[in-house]
Amino acid sequence: YINTDGFAKPNYAILQTPRFAVSGPTCRLKFWYNIYGIGKIGSLDVVAMMPNKTSLLWSVGGSQGAEWKQADVAVGQHGNYRIGIRANTDIGSPKGYMAIDDTSFEGCSIKTYKKPKKT
């Protein structure tokens, strides 16, 4: 949850997974979200964060109404990465919030990344 009320500069909050070694091609991230407010609220993004690159997988911006909606994001096949759900607020939004709930991965064969040992 992030409150978007009256920021003097853009702000963000990010929820990220542990680092994964690899995921399967049918991997999907599902979650419920609620973005509600007046004026410029900002955006909610899902990103794949790799060591030298960040890829935008899904994004929604502005107020989406008072009801909860479900996101179904194709993660796809990646290696050595994290998934992040990022809430980006705009400057001076007079009143609003962003929230997520009930996140799950489906159709994934995720393996956790293990840092190589120094020899």
Topology (elements, then pairings):
Blueprint: E1 2-3, E2 11-16, E3 20-22, E4 28-38, E5 42-50, E6 53-61, E7 69-74, E8 79-89, E9 95-106, E10 111-112
Antiparallel strand pairs: 1-9, 2-8, 3-8, 3-10, 4-7, 4-9, 5-6, 5-8
Structural account:
This protein has 119 residues and is mostly beta strands. It has no helices and 10 strands. It has strands at 2-3, 11-16, 20-22, 28-38, 42-50, 53-61, 69-74, 79-89, 95-106, 111-112. β5 and β6 form a beta hairpin.
What is the CA–CA distance across the termini? 43 Å
Helix % is: under 10%
Secondary structure tally: strands: 10
Into which percentage range does the β-strand content fall?
A: over 45%
Q: Which regions are unreliable across 5 or more consecutive residues at pLDDT < 50? A: none
Rg measurement, Å: 16 Å
Tell me the overall shape.
elongated
SSE order: EEEEEEEEEE
Rounded mean pLDDT is: 85
How does the major sheet shape up? Answer: 6 strands, antiparallel
